[in-house]
Amino acid sequence: GAVVSQHPSWVICKSGTSVKIECRSLDFQATTMFWYRQFPKQSLMLMATSNEGSKATYEQGVEKDKFLINHASLTLSTLTVTSAHPEDSSFYICSARDMASGRYEQYFGPGTRLTVT
Amino acid sequence: AQRVTQPEKLLSVFKGAPVELKCNYSYSGSPELFWYVQYSRQRLQLLLRHISRESIKGFTADLNKGETSFHLKKPFAQEEDSAMYYCALGSGGSNYKLTFGKGTLLTVNP
Fold this sequence. Notes:
Chain A is mostly beta strands and 117 residues long.
């Protein structure tokens, strides 16, 4: 089945630094990837939709200059949290759609736990 | 704007008992509804979608457009069903995205 990986699985960084999270579709091509944020014991909040070769579409209230998204290939999207602050600490999850299958199912990555100290 | 409501944050049943996880949605267009499940320490995975009209792991869900509901049901709960369940609404056409409910934590007691 379709597999999505994320790297790293967890990361600790100091306040003011930037951190990059990778999302890869391992056995299918994903023209569209999604980035979510999940707070403890809460639901997934869509941050942005990432389309290969074009700019990401951000949801209302998400700072595009803070959360940089790049989708340079059909199997890789990256989320860079710039100038991270403790309030950015969260669980970040990506998902990808296998457009070739003709289905709208999203396959989710295992998530990345970010802790900003 | 689309919205998904899962009124129960927690649901606890005994093994063998029927279980129903409620989901209501708000969307002006033609909705596509999903149930996702997240077992402890695992990633989110699709349980079922209304278009398929299938039963997965004994779970079924029927889309009721009149009541704007997509409740998840299982006649006899098992301990391994204990997990977090999210109802999601797919919408947007070319700008397709999923809107998730807040989730219901199901605990099936022995």
